[in-house]
Specification:
Organism: Paenibacillus sedimenti
CATH superfamily: Beta-grasp domain
Largest sheet: 5 strands, mixed
CATH topology: Ubiquitin-like (UB roll)
Number of helices: 2
Helix content: 10-25%
Strand content: 25-35%
Protein name: MoaD/ThiS family protein
Order of helices and strands: EEHHEEE
Number of domains: 1
Distance between the termini: 42 Å
Length: 91
């Protein structure tokens, strides 16, 4: 199943300049695995060394925050999206 992935422009250096692209997977976990297979630099920006989503990052599957899900074994459907939001602070 093809899904759309969106990442903030601050992370485009990790995705070859892409901020919106498609990838193929059957489950949400498969989509995350494929995302990090294609763009391995994203993993360090999105997850801690222990596999937790970083505090300044929000990952959404459609309109659901991944933090609210018990597991990522959800079967993907046409039109699904994986969206990365990254909080930015500064002066």
């Amino acid at each position: 199943m093809l899904i759309t992935v969106s990442v903030p422009s601050l992370l485009r250096d990790c995705t070859g300049g892409n901020v919106k692209f498609e990838l193929e997977a059957h489950t949400l976990q498969g989509a995350l695995d494929e995302l990090f297979n294609i763009y391995p630099l994203l993993r360090v920006h999105l997850f801690t060394e222990t596999g937790q989503v970083r505090k300044h990052v929000l990952l959404y599957y459609n309109d659901t925050n991944l933090a609210w899900l018990d597991n990522f074994d959800l079967v993907l459907q046409p039109g699904d999206q994986l969206i990365v939001f990254q909080a930015v602070s500064g002066g």
